[in-house]
């Protein structure tokens, strides 16, 4: 059964090794991936994720997964899964570059 995905929050469905995951390019997750891979810039991080580098893909599966069993996904990962990973990473990253503000009505801001 597929996991629920909230696209307005930048969540992206991804299947790796037959395991359903939901990833999101959170700032904390991106920082963790960047640190682990010793990336020098956002461009470096983007190239490593979109280029399906093995270490980058493994790190991103672990650190960007917000739903699903990323450990099982990594254990079952095959080279044929890398295209879906690259596509999902690109969609998740694009959420940060879009002008879409998402679902702003879902949680109104309360002035404090």
Summarize the structure.
Helices cover 46% and strands 13% of the residues. By secondary structure, it is of the alpha+beta class.
Structure, explained:
- It contains five helices and three strands; from the N terminus they run ββαααβαα.
- The chain is α+β, with helices and mostly antiparallel strands.
- Helix 1 runs antiparallel to helix 3 and helix 3 crosses helix 5.
- It is globular, with a radius of gyration of 14 Å.
- The C terminus is likely disordered.
| Major beta-sheet overview | 3 strands, antiparallel
Structural class: alpha+beta
Q: What's the helical proportion of residues?
A: 40-55%
How many H/I helices?
Answer: 5
Shape: globular
Q: How far from one another are the termini?
A: 41 Å
**What portion of residues belong to β-strands?**
5-15%
Strand line-up of the largest beta sheet: 1-2-3
What are the low-pLDDT stretches, counting only 5+ consecutive residues below 50? 103-112
Return the string of H and E elements: EEHHHEHH
Rg from Cα: 14 Å
Mean pLDDT over the full residue set:
86
The number of distinct β-strands equals 3
Fold topology:
Layout: E1 11-16, E2 19-24, H1 27-37, H2 42-50, H3 54-64, E3 65-67, H4 70-76, H5 82-94
Annotation keywords:
globular; three-stranded antiparallel sheet; disordered C terminus; alpha+beta; single chain; 112 residues
């Amino acid at each position: 059964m597929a996991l629920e995905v909230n696209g307005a929050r930048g969540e992206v469905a991804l299947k790796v090794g037959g395991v359903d995951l939901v990833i999101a390019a959170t700032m904390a997750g991106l920082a963790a991936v960047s640190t682990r891979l010793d990336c020098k810039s956002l461009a470096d991080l983007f190239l490593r994720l979109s280029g399906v580098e093995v270490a980058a893909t493994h790190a991103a599966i672990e650190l960007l997964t917000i739903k699903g069993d990323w450990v099982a996904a990594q254990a079952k990962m095959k080279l044929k899964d890398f295209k879906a990973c690259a596509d999902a990473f690109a969609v998740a990253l694009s959420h940060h570059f879009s002008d879409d503000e998402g679902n702003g009505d879902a949680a109104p801001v309360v002035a404090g």
